[in-house]
Amino acid sequence: MHEATVAQSLIEAILREAEKRRGRPVRAKMSCGELNKINDEVFTFAFEAVAKGTLCDGMTLRIEHKPLQARCRTCGEMFAVDVSNTRCPGCEGGDFELLPDAPLVLEEIEFEGAEDGEG
Amino acid sequence: MEKVDVGRKILSANETYALKNRQLLDRYGKPCFNLISSPGSGKTTLLVRTITDLMPTLRIGVIEGDLQTDIDAERIRATKAPAIQINTDGACHLSASQVNRALEKLPVESLDIVVIENVGNLVCPSAFELGEDGKIVVLSVAEGDDKPVKYPGIFAKSKVLLVNKIDMLKGGFVEFDLDRVRSDARKLNEAIEIFPVSARTGEGMQNWYDWLTRQLRRRS
Hints:
heterodimer; A: 3-stranded mixed beta sheet; B: 9 helices
């Protein structure tokens, strides 16, 4: 259940931004790669649990899954790899180079009542 | 409503500690490996045999991670090698900050190699960098030959795959297609080194020892 650790780190990152903006965070978008995959249901549950009692309580979270990219050595095609069926969709070949997997990233936050609005 | 682009790595706090560990190990020029597998694949037995066979030429220090108990650290200390136990109290992986505290207690200067034995888990530990030079995944034949496709993350990220308990193949106790494991692991990670071993009988262990010894030269 490392989702709880990731949720804790995400909330800390959001709270740091919220402090700078002096606004209430209402929505956030994060992204993850295929080899650092986060399960949406488990993660949302963990996020809600960790958010209780913080400024993040009640926030809506969106998780973008970034596919693992590969480059075929035979035909040069770039494609998203399905790890259970590793074939190039261009030439059906199996000789390809995997590109680095996307890390876990906090992409954006939407704030309500940011400092300039409160003035 | 204001939308703010953040673009910040969520595990950056862990990565900060991983970098500190990296710097500490670099200061002494010691290679460090993060040993990851399911529970019961034989990580500790493998380490005990490795330490015993390579001592005193190669001095290995160990950081042990488990939810509870210091059983594993005691097994390592019985070989006279230093070991620091971390109890995660339920957490499914070691974090770089825990390893940082353990590294401070380990006599790194007097060692040749540091090995971190992670919590037995083929999933979560692969997401947390500890400052190691590389991950080593252990898969025992009793677990089945479908693990690289079922748990791709750790096989994609490891430098070495140790296929352990190969002595069990001889008695026909388990069905395990080593070629399938080789091919599936290399599809995810073409550079991965694969050593079939038995930590119990010693079969194949020399290949692993040779690899480990080469890592010393690479660093010094």
